[in-house]
Specification:
Two copies of one chain form a homodimer. The first copy, chain A, contains five helices and no strands. The first copy, chain A, is mainly alpha-helical. Chain A is globular, with a radius of gyration of 11 Å. The structure holds a DNA duplex.
Chain lengths: 68, 68
DNA sequence: ATATAAATATCCCGATATGGTATATTATGG
DNA sequence: CCATAATATACCATATCGGGATATTTATAT
């Protein structure tokens, strides 16, 4: 999860992200550290929130946005 | 998960896919039906196996391959 | 149409992973 | 330093998972 990097680049806190996406701050922390994996619905919410592809979010490509 | 569609297009069985990826046939079945979600490592194995992006696999784009 | 086999779905269960609350740690500003 | 914001960790009840076994559905041959 490239989440931490993306989030910091936008200058938003774990808590704000958590509140915006209806989740807990500690969950965000755990996703960023890789301690736990967000389910698909949450993964998609995060990708949509930052407007990046899942592949980018998971560190599989350098291109932030998906095709089409 | 667009897995079923992709797999069928390539004409391979759940069992073969399962064996190729070191998993169980019933897991494949469950991922296809959406009853359960593969963890990220498995998700990536599947995407690599079929050479498609995660975004495509999850049905978020019509473009099968990821950028770069 | 029926028998056989292949493919897929479902049941059960112990093990693992998850989300939530609370709390601890670390960073930042005054 | 101190206060506060930001982030990480502990604990626990519950949900989800993988795997073996089995049932069901679908294809194939006779």
């Amino acid at each position: 999860m490239r989440l931490k990097e993306i989030r910091k680049k936008r200058g938003i806190s774990q808590l704000k992200l958590a509140m915006d996406l209806n989740m807990n701050q500690n969950s965000v922390s755990r996703y960023e550290s890789g301690e736990r994996e967000a389910d698909y619905a949450t993964l998609i919410k995060i990708a949509d929130y930052f407007d990046v592809s899942i592949d980018y979010l998971l560190g599989r490509t350098e291109n932030p946005r998906m095709n089409r």
